[in-house]
Amino acid sequence: MITTAPHTSATFPAWFTDRQQAAWTRYLATPTPKRGDETWRFSNIKQLDFAGFSRNASTDPATDLVARSSGLEAPAAKFVFINDTLAHAESRLPAAAICLPLAEALVSHSALVEAHFMRQETRLGSAKYAALHEASLTNGMFIHIPDHVEIPGTIEVHHWLTGANTVIFPHTLVVTGTAAKVRVVDIFRSADQVQPGLAIAVNDLSAGPGSKLDYVAIQAFNEVTRVIQINETAAARDAATTGFILNTGAAWARNESLSRLEGAGSRSDMLAVSIPARAQEYDQRTFQHHVSPGAFSDLLYKNSLYDHSNTIFSGLIFVDEEAHHTDAYQTCRNLLMSDTCEANSMPGLEINADQVKCSHGSTSSQISEEEIFYLRARGIDPVAARQLIARGFSVEVVSRLGDDALEALVIRFIDNKFANIATGGA
Amino acid sequence: MRSYFPRDMSLHIEDLRATLEDGTEILKGVSLEIPKGEVHAIMGPNGSGKSTLSKVIAGHDSYLVTGGSVTLDGTDIFPMAIDERSRAGIFLAFQYPSEVPGVSNANFIRAALQARLPQGEEIDAVAYYKRLYGKMDLLEIDRKFTARSVNEGFSGGEKKRNEILQLMMLEPLYAILDETDSGLDIDALKIVAKGVNAMRSPERGFLLITHYQRLLDYITPDYVHVMAEGRIVRSGGPELAHELEKHGYEFLKDLALA
């Protein structure tokens, strides 16, 4: 792993250099998570041995990867990063919107970036890796939508990992002003299926009053790559945010998602679909933090587990003393597609306010025999029937995105995974 | 030269016996022949084995066939898996259709049709929707149901109409309707009957399973059979249904005594 302090580019502002140096010190001072830590309960701590990974300045094969960066038919803007280096940019955004590679924004909009850059404390276990990310990142996306500006369509960002034992630090910072609207999708992939990689990614969403901010992360790395992805969301008064994570790739993925409902009447929808197969492990930790009264949060995580895969879900709804009239829901559903998979769920609730409506629950089940019988009685063979039902189980979450084009994109990745499972990973 | 036997063109059930997994015998020797072009109705009290008969023919694995045979146009269906039987031409309209969350009705029916095509052949989407909408219009099903998850949040009547829609799309050789009339109001019943009547053809046989004579006011059967305690105890013409409506199943007690 990286053992010397990362070198901050001389073009970046002094505050950023200071932040990176402080983060590096924090990284060194923070102990590595160990067995027995509450936030790493059930986790496979061995996955945190990152020895041998280093940064890689190569963007080969750049032309090929840019060509393979297909997503939406008509994105509002499209950026392609290869090993954190910008390889392609196009934009049809209104002039008022700022949508820039972070390296550029740090120079051109330094104060604005500083006001929003990594403001929340990482509380779900990966403080050490968040510090490493902060110390090491060299680029990313900075998206700032000013008051009353609505972006039609979706901003699409591709992140490629290439070369053996490469580590990347993707960063996406999205800020919406009052009554602004934006939708962003990050797509994470590997250049090939054989070279091990590591991604330590952070996305930071800050939704201004009455704004609407939707974010989708599609994680489709190869199955010898590991990922830590930290999602921070802050919703101001009457803001509505949606965070959606799709996990189909990686050997091991850790998602930490925290939503802070800072303003009264704010809303956060936290959604995830994970389809692990073979020996894939997905470890998901969530926190719905109700700070203000009258806010709403709804979490729905669905896992379809095949083969020897395993998942961990640990979620907490936390209602502060002042956050009366909170509405908070948390559901994790596991569909067990094999007898050898393992799903661990640890839902949690802590309420310190009055007149609160909260519920949490997790279920694990296999496909019901009656459902299979119904499909087979229509002529659908048992393999296709199970696949159709498992797909439906996932698609139900996707349909909450409320945008046809984006839903179709997510479903394309889901279908790729099911096809990959059907052919045994070939 | 191949000789012609009526059973070559029928769904032929002969001395069929079936038990539950625990050995309880439900079907105690059912014999019935449904030639193509005919509509047969089976009536009978609750627990007489009517629904079991339909599930055994469809291939449900909660039942163990202990004797007898079922042939489809002369071919033994018991070696066939559930889905093979469907593709061979047997259709069961369920009494309680399953909900399939996240699978749209249009995609579900399309998958069922796709399963009938040779590998590599794809359904023509435009023609498919045209045909689907045509059948939906006949069954007075709103277009929005194509995008809704299969049976999820459907009312009882909507579920039954959806079963008939599938019947119309899949065009089976033999259709078994298991208590399709239960839970339907009179308007829904008329629509369902309209769908079934539209599907009556010299190329297709029907077996209607019902507890009440009401359905038979709208779908006139060629034959009516009464089932009790796992057997067909009486067979007759459509008038038998009216007789049952008038006198109920009381006569079965006399039969049991005899």
Question: Could you give the topology of this structure?
Answer:
The complex is a heterodimer of chains A (426) and B (258).
Chain A: H1 14-29, H2 62-68, E1 77-82, E2 85-91, E3 98-101, H3 102-108, H4 110-116, H5 127-136, E4 141-145, E5 155-161, E6 166-168, E7 171-176, E8 181-190, E9 197-207, E10 212-220, E11 225-235, E12 240-247, E13 252-261, E14 267-274, E15 281-290, E16 296-305, E17 310-319, E18 327-336, E19 342-351, E20 357-365, H6 369-376, H7 382-398, H8 404-422
Parallel strand pairs in A: 1-5, 4-7, 5-8, 6-9, 7-9, 8-10, 9-11, 10-12, 11-13, 12-14, 13-15, 14-16, 15-17, 16-18, 17-19, 18-20
Antiparallel strand pairs in A: 1-2, 3-4
Chain B: E1 10-20, E2 25-35, E3 39-43, H1 50-58, E4 63-72, E5 75-76, H2 82-88, E6 90-93, E7 100-104, H3 105-114, H4 125-138, E8 149-150, H5 156-170, E9 174-178, H6 186-199, E10 205-210, E11 223-228, E12 231-236, H7 239-247, H8 251-257
Parallel strand pairs in B: 3-10, 3-11, 6-9, 9-10
Antiparallel strand pairs in B: 1-2, 1-4, 4-5, 7-8, 11-12
Helix pairs in contact in B: 5-6
Main sheet: strand order of chain B:
6-9-10-3-11-12
CATH-assigned fold name of the domain at 6-101 and 174-257 in chain B? Rossmann fold
- What number of structural domains do the residues of chain A give? 1
Name of the CATH first level of the domain at 6-101 and 174-257 in chain B:
Alpha Beta
Number of strands of chain B: 12
Mean pLDDT of chain A: 95
Give the overall form of chain B: globular
Tell me the distance between the termini of chain A. 31 Å
Secondary-structure element order of chain A, N to C = HHEEEHHHEEEEEEEEEEEEEEEEEHHH
**Tell me about the biggest sheet of chain A?**
10 strands, mixed
Q: What percent of the residues of chain A sit in helical stretches (DSSP H or I)?
A: 10-25%
Full CATH superfamily name of the domain at 6-101 and 174-257 in chain B: P-loop containing nucleotide triphosphate hydrolases
